[in-house]
């Protein structure tokens, strides 16, 4: 299925009509959220993970060495700065207390804290203290201060206050008969949305909440006219509050808040504000979502099984198992020590710019839409060595400046584009075209690709894995070719499932495979993972890029990988084929 680069609407679900509150500025209360961080997923110095005693949580506990100095350190995320309650679950089967310093971000907040005896190693107790945390990540460390070492440590539970509301800027939403403007003062973000003077224009946001229940929607707006501007507020396709009046704010530089109480589902919801008068809606700055259930305060699970999937003289590629979350994982961070060296929307990443022969150790965390970050994964170590990095983007582009057209006509970039402008061209050992990139999110259902994130989602792909299943667009770099037609039939050039392609964009080269087919009249589409690797917005609802992408599909014998889902194979073969392409042209 061809997914346009422009924003598209998602399928809508009905909800009951709910109560409208009077417009006005209201303080939105915070609530407490408790997140558990298992010790076995923390950073451990002079200790091991064991499971030889009963009663622990998770997959094990940490047994530190019997000396002064061993520590266990957790990374705790706080939505906002403030006081938190820290509960440390431990076991001490000796006859005397064990002491440890508890520090937050390098500062000791409880010196030589006593962890009393628990009768035996199968009995667990909790030591609770309060500490001030910063907004974002905080390092909580328990360090032994006696020769017996730390007690056995099971987990840390942090109870922190959620942020009072989650804000969604209007200029980042889906717009119809409305546009982003900056010609009045006092707005937040990068602008505000100005409706056209007609009935039916709307702003639609996709918002995430942790729990189903009653929530307050606060619209920050300006209305410089003397009359009210009413709007219908719909939730998941059903009007929850009809004809909500947004009163005059005296002038267009003065902003006010209008509130509506609605019921939201856990997870992603669509909120649409539609103008219902000939004047259109008011200017809208942002939407804030709060209320029962509040913003998401639960961190994702820790990424599991981090592994090295490929190396070059200057890079190390990693992969790990997808994390889970009560709302949804939005991305991952790769750390070397305490420094973030890569981010990725999918469960893989490549760290570039390394010195040949250098060895590096990494951990991975998962992040959700509310900014909650999981604990760190186990450490994975790799060495930047082996194969060539292949031709550069400039070298490849220099060989495709002229087009020897082989297509019988040209392709459109999107279904609603009136003119076909993209030709398929041929060079020795490859065919190529230049155009846009739309996002293909079909195949395996993932957090990134499903019926809620992609209106046109299909749970299948033309090409299959070696186990006869659909491809995973969120994890595998693949591209889409037009289905055979009188314009061009890719099969005449020996192209098929697993054929390697070099995709060039913004000075980068991504090696991918043919993985799916699209409409007969449209060209220029690739998987979620391909876009993410190239720094293109991979969101199937509003991502992609309108131009600047070159697709070089290698032809001839030996141009297909043996395992289509193995990206490392595509990279290694692609570099070899790309060098041959340079040599032959």
TrEMBL record:
The keyword Zinc does not apply. It is found in: Secreted. This is Glycoside hydrolase family 75 protein. It holds the Pfam family Glyco_hydro_75. The lineage of its organism: Bacteria, Bacillati, Actinomycetota, Actinomycetes, Streptosporangiales. One of its GO terms (molecular function) is hydrolase activity. Residues 273-310 are annotated as: Disordered. It comes from the Bacteria. Its main location: secreted. Residues 35-159, 166-290 form the CBM6 domain. Residues 1-32 form the signal peptide. InterPro entries: CBM6, Chitosanase_fungal, FN3_dom.
């Amino acid at each position: 299925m061809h997914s346009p680069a422009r924003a598209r609407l998602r399928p809508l679900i009905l909800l009951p009509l709910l109560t409208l509150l009077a417009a006005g500025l209201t303080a939105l209360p915070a609530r407490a959220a408790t997140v558990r961080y298992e010790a076995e997923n923390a950073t451990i110095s002079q200790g091991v993970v064991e499971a030889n005693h009963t009663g622990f949580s998770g997959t094990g506990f940490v047994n530190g060495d019997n000396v002064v100095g061993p520590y266990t350190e957790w990374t705790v995320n706080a939505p906002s700065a403030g006081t938190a309650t820290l509960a440390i679950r431990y076991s001490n089967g000796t006859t005397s207390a064990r002491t440890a310093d508890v520090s937050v971000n390098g500062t000791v907040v409880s010196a030589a804290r006593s962890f009393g005896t628990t009768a035996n190693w199968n009995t667990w107790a909790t030591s609770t203290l309060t500490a001030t945390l910063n907004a974002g990540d905080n390092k909580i460390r328990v360090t032994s201060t006696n020769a017996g070492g730390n007690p056995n440590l099971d987990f840390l539970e942090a109870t922190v206050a959620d942020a009072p509301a989650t804000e969604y800027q209007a200029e980042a939403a889906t717009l119809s008969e409305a546009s982003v403007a900056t010609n009045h003062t006092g707005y937040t973000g990068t602008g505000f949305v100005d409706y056209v003077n007609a009935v039916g224009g709307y702003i639609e946001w996709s918002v995430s909440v942790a729990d189903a229940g009653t929530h307050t929607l606060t619209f920050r707006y300006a209305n410089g006219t003397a009359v009210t501007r009413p709007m219908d507020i719909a939730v998941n396709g059903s009007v929850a509050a009809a004809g909500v009046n947004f009163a005059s704010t005296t002038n267009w530089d003065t902003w006010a808040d209008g509130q509506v109480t609605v019921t939201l589902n856990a997870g992603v919801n669509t909120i649409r504000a539609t103008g219902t008068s000939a004047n259109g809606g008011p200017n809208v700055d942002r939407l804030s979502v709060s209320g029962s259930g509040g913003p998401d305060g639960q961190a994702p699970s820790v990424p599991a099984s981090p592994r090295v999937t490929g190396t070059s003289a200057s890079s190390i590629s990693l992969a790990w198992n997808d994390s889970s979350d009560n709302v949804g994982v939005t991305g991952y961070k790769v750390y070397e020590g305490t420094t973030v060296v890569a981010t990725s929307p999918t469960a893989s990443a490549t760290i570039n710019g390394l010195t040949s022969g250098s060895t590096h150790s990494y951990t991975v965390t998962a992040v959700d839409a509310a900014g909650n970050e999981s604990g760190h994964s186990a450490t994975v170590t790799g060495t930047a060595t082996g194969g060539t990095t292949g031709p550069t983007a400039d070298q490849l582009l220099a060989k495709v400046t002229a087009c020897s057209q082989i297509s019988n006509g040209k392709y459109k970039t999107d279904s609603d584009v009136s003119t076909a402008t993209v030709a398929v061209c041929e060079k020795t050992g490859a065919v190529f075209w230049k155009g846009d990139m739309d996002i293909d999110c079909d195949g395996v259902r993932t957090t990134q690709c499903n019926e809620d994130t992609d209106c046109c989602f299909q749970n299948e792909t033309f090409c299959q894995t070696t186990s006869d299943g659909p491809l995973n667009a969120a994890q595998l770099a693949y591209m889409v070719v037009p289905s055979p037609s009188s314009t061009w039939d890719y099969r005449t050039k020996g192209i098929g499932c697993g054929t390697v392609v070099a995709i060039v964009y913004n000075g980068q080269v991504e090696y991918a495979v043919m993985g799916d087919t699209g409409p007969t009249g449209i060209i220029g589409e690739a998987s979620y993972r391909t876009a993410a690797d190239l720094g293109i917005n991979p969101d199937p609802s509003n991502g992609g890029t309108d131009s600047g992408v070159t697709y070089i599909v290698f032809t001839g014998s030996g141009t297909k990988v043996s395992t289509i889902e193995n990206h490392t194979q595509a990279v290694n073969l692609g570099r070899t084929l790309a060098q041959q392409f340079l040599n032959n042209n």
